[in-house]
Amino acid sequence: MVVFPETLVDPNAILCSFFLLLATRRLISIRSLKDIKFKIFDATIWILVSSLFYDWALLFMILVFAAIYFYEPKNIRNWLVPFAAAFTALMITECVLVLSGNEQFFVEHYQFAISLKITHFSYWGHSTKLVLFALVTFVAGVLAFVKLGKAGFGKVITMRLIALSFVIGLVLNVFKLTDNVYPVMVTFFPSVVFMTKYIESLRKANIREIILMAAVIIPFLVLMTSIAIK
Predict the structure, then answer these.
(1) Amino acid 103: pLDDT
(2) With CB atoms 3.0 to 4.6 Å apart as the test, which of 53, 83, 88, 206 could cross-link to 16 if both were Cys?
């Protein structure tokens, strides 16, 4: 967040990330193989709520179907739950919109426009920081997967879901990033998980301390550099 302070001025990024975090939490909890349908239903509802802030957040529905495929794909009823949740969310939202006199919200909001501007990414604060952030997270994720090679199957699936969440978040960020929209916050949770898993896998305490110190100091250096350039 220190590297991307502009995300704090975008309330949609904060609220969208919050509801996506709730959805991810429910999907990860499917690992216990208890109340799977309820968890799928909840996760779908939270993703649909997050899409009220960013229309492209609907891409995270891929995460729901991926979780079903990973954990219990043979139960056909699991595949129908997201559609039931979508119908429920649609009816509730439509009622609220009618009562508030804002019936055109769906047409105006869910346009799925791609706000890809080359001039916007030409500024280093938008392109370089995002690329470096993605590369660091990718490297940490690969190393975390390597360390999990001998771990239980449940942990590997969880990391796969988190990796997919990060990729979808990057796609959303590319589609929505404009001068006043900063959706990079939706990628913070998977990035933190990858970094944490990698640091936990290190056996030497002195290396862990060095990496933790670098993780604290480097973001502030990037922030000060951004301020100095502006």
Answers:
(1) 84
(2) 53
